[in-house]
Design brief:
Strand order of the largest sheet: 10-7-13-12-14-15
Oligomer: single chain
Strand content: 15-25%
CATH class of the largest domain: Alpha Beta
Shape: globular
Helix content: 40-55%
Amino acid sequence: MAKKKKTKKTPTTSRSSTKAEAHRRDRDTLTRGKLSELAQSVVKSSLAGREPKIEVPSRTLSNTRWNKSRKILQMGNACQERQLFNLGQAKKFMQTMLHANGINNLIEADKTLSLRGMFYMGLHTIQGTKNEKTFDEQSESDTVLEDMEVAIGSLREELHIFAKKAGTMVGNITIIDSGDEINCRKMGSGGYAIPSIVEPDVIQFKDCTADFILHVEKNTVWSRFNEDRFWEKHNCILTEGGGQPPRGVRRLLHRLHKELKLPVYCLLDCDPWGHYIFSVIKQGSISLAFESERLAIPDAKYLGIRGMDYERCNLSDDVQIALNERDINRARQIAEYPWFKDHKGWQKEIKKMLSNGFKMEVESLITKDISYVTETYVPERLARQDWLS
């Protein structure tokens, strides 16, 4: 790959921290204002003798639009009403207001809480009942929190809520994480654990000399690249997302791409799930279409593994994992996605996998040599610009 001149980004820690603190205060003030508007609308309706209700944008396939010019998924304008006096909606209405109050308390206390913690914060037996709980299980709570995001137009990170960490990074970059300087060149075998909240008021980029980002699907593959010091030899940042990357990983990739102008290359399995992971990284997802502008990376490139690699890399039959009916159906669904349907390269890729009748994992390249993927496969693909966009 052609080298480009790099300018180190080295803001002072104190200046960066002060700016981040001001950003956080402004964000919290705005979020609390939105929560207050929500509460006031309920109070106003009640005092006027009208039924209190909340409008929540629909997070459904039918309300998701493919923006062809911007190459991202976006949420439509359809909304659902959540009414207090509707027996089918009353509990959800109560849960929404319960979490709104909890979020307001979190912001006021300047603390964060996990999704699991929010479930327990709102969990109690409803007054006047023997054993009716506010939430039957965490999935109920998580869904309401996602509804809260779209209802008031604030993201989970702005609500002071975080999810489980599931991602790792190493490479030629130094970051500031909550005031602590982290040199990602010196993270040992474990790497830097990417947090759930990676907004500018938490994570700042101090300096970066990398030329690109290589995102791999799983930690097992990431460990091979890290042990072989791929990021050092090829001057890059190496990340993984534990399979389907969580929001924190996707958001960090988006920020690195947008703010530092770093290309993103994805090394994923040759199966419908690897293809879907790339689709989510590149275009966004249906469930998080309202966040696509902050998560999707339309310029991301798919490096492999490819259906043709079985013959091209002269792999043995041992690497073949037979496609089952679920795999085949999922592949056909993905082929019909608007951003894949009109893409000749992706149509050819999916058809090749289906005609092979089997899928392959990145780890299958170990049958060639333990470091074949780091020393031959990826360097050759990058040099030839052999990828799918």
